[in-house]
Amino acid sequence: MSAAASTAAAVRFAGRNPTGMAVVDQAADPGFTLVRALSSGYSACPVVVLLTPSGHADEDARFAFGQGARAVALATASASYLHQVLSGVYLGVPIQSNGEASAVDQKRSHALSQREREILALIAEGMSSRSIAERLVVSVETVRSHAKNIIRKLEANGRAEAVSIAYRTGILDSDAVPLA
To answer: Are 119 and 147 within 8 A, CB to CB?
Structure first.
């Protein structure tokens, strides 16, 4: 892993050293000049851009992709989500080529109430509706109602897919999963 103090230094470094991937923070490259330089030319490498959270994240993502970025993620994303993005780029997994994925993930994340997040985490632990109800001191029907809302809000087909989406989008942090 290496770091560069300027766009020119990063381009020089990439030209002299085969680079498997570059991660560029939007705060350091707001015009995506470095992204364009690193993703084109003889020493081209895949570039992942860490976006500054703002109301313009979708526009910034589209612009970053237009300048050659292979993937984008919010700079505030969880470590597990960033690991997933970086691993995907490294392995050559196709990345959606616009900002829609990040926008959808953000909307999904913000759509869940704190109680729904709590229930989703317990579902991810493998707990039944009855066990969750006992732990939270609510009725089984309340838990089932929350589970249905979670599935609907995450646009999932069931509990397992809801949990998968939650890990993939950073709603749940895989680093925080308790071991039995």
So the answer is: yes
Which CATH number belongs to the domain containing residue 165 in this structure? 1.10.10.10
Which tokens in the block code for residue 50? 């860490």
Give the max Cα distance, the chain.
64
DSSP state of 20: S
List Cβ neighbours of 99 (8 Å cut-off, separation of 6 or more).
57, 58, 59, 60, 61, 62, 65, 72
Q: How many domains does the chain have?
A: 2
Q: What are phi and psi of 126, to 5 degrees?
A: 95, 10
The one-letter amino acid at 48: V
Q: Same domain for 93 and 56?
A: yes
Q: What is the pTM of this model?
A: 0.53
Going by the DSSP 8-state scheme, the letter that residue 42 receives in this structure is T
Of the two residues 174 and 35, the one the predictor is more confident about is: 35
Domain boundary among 97, 129, 146: 97
Whether 56 has a pLDDT exceeding 90, the answer reads: no
Q: How far apart are CA 171 and CA 135, in angstroms?
A: 21
Q: Is the separation of the CB atoms in 39 and 69 below 8 Å?
A: yes
